[in-house]
Amino acid sequence: MMESSAAEKEQWIENDFAKAVAFQKQGEFDEAEKLYKKIILRQPEHLNAKLNYVILAINTENYVLGKHLCKMILKSGFIDENILVNYSICLIKLDEAAEAESILSEVLAVNPDNHAANGLLARVQLPGIDYLEYLALFHQWLKPKTYLEVGVDEGISLKRVNSNTQVIGIDPEPRINSVLPNNIRIFAAKSDDFFNDNNVSDLFGGKSIDLAFIDGLHRFDEALKDFINIEKYSDEKTVVLVHDCIPLNKATSTRERSTKFWSGDVWKLVLVLKKYRPDLQVFTIPASPTGLSVITNLDKTSNILKQELDCIFNDYLSVEYEQISASKKESLGIIEHGWDSVKEKLSTNNAV
Questions:
Q1: pLDDT at 348
Q2: pLDDT value at position 2?
Q3: Which of 48-57, 76-85, 101-110, 343-352 is predicted least confidently?
Q4: Residue 65 pLDDT greater than 70, yes or no
């Protein structure tokens, strides 16, 4: 019997590869894996088979295999952003976060707009539950009678609200496609216009704001104005939450957006409040992906922030991420992650 030619062997391998790809797309991972193993055994340098096998390993949560395959690929000299990101995923899942953080930082040094790398780095730096889960815990624990939210977008955060809480949501272009319960009212307006045109206490039937969440334009001055307006309708138990207050890195934490993953310069709000309103109690929860600051001990009679608004804007507009990067935890009042830490802090601040 004549031996198969090299061209014939190559064709068999490519036919098997096409079948493996089809199996993988259909979710038949066992069949796809058998073929990838067969291909790599016959042709160890078959890069696409190994790349697809990495994705299959991640999809089936076989992170040990995924890590092994990534190391094989990198050792062969093939290095690109996708394989480094996939390698990092496996490392994170295997509790090797320090190495993953180093790799992700290298990826972002070359391409600051790698969305997956930014997201993974945020998860490494801010482990634990995310800001929406914390928001749900605030609603469950505080049981607010009134809740105001700036920046409702698709209404995902509104799903955390208790059914007996009166809710006002503000967004110039809300993208809510489902029918909301009767306790939620949405105002399609810029927050400045809303507060100029409405008395929040009247809308809440004479009640103060118990809980507020600011998640608007990702700019510190806009968040500051929202806080000033909210404080006018506060009492001694009001709690204000502000999203995006832990900057990940310079590229994603600038005033003007240049990356898909972007928190803006809202983090400057914490610096402003600590300087101009030391009477407030401010701390920041390391909630992925970009932090959640908590403000209590509000004083509805205070006019300091409004009076100093122009001065604050001029002073803090030029503040750069590098000025707080080395002292991020202290500068932003970042506490230990975990709900117990939050409850302890709130109890200490007499917020509950």
A1: 76
A2: 45
A3: 343-352
A4: yes
Hunting for tokens 């994170």 — which residue is that?
Answer: 92
118, 107 contact by CB (below 8 A): no
- Please state the domain extents for the chain: 7-125, 131-348
189-220 as b/e, with b when 16 or more CB fall inside 10 Å?
Answer: bbbeebbeeeebeebbeebbbbbbbbbbbbbb
Which H, E and C letters describe the chain, residue by residue?
CCCCCHHHHHHHHHHHHHHHHHHHHCCCHHHHHHHHHHHHHHCCCCHHHHHHHHHHHHHCCCHHHHHHHHHHHHHCCCCCHHHHHHHHHHHHHCCCHHHHHHHHHHHHHHCCCCHHHHHHHHHHHCCCCEHHHHHHHHHHHHCCCEEEEECCCCCCHHHHCCCCCEEEEECCCCCCCCCCCCCEEEECCCHHHHHHHCCHHHHCCCCCCCEEEECCCCCHHHHHHHHHHHHCCCCCCCEEEEECCCCCCCCCCCCCCCCCCCCCCCCHHHHHHHHHCCCCEEEEECCECCCEEEEECCCCCCCHHHHCHHHHHHHHCCCCCHHHHCCHHHHHCECCCCHHHHHHHHHHCCCC
Six token digits for residue 52: 């697809």
Q: Average per-residue pLDDT in the chain?
A: 95
Residue in this structure with the two tokens 């006019």, named with its chain if needed: 303
Fold of 131-348: Rossmann fold (3.40.50)
Q: Is a pLDDT exceeding 50 seen at residue 13? A: yes
Q: What CATH superfamily classification does 7-125 receive?
A: Tetratricopeptide repeat domain (1.25.40.10)
Measured distance CA(182)–CA(252) in Å, rounded:
37
pLDDT above 50: residue 297:
yes
- Whole-model pTM: value is 0.91
Do you find a cis peptide bond into 112, omega within 30 degrees of 0? Answer: no
Indicate the length of the chain as a whole number.
Answer: 352
Instruction: Give residues with Cβ within 8 angstroms of 236, minimum separation 6.
Output: 297, 298, 350
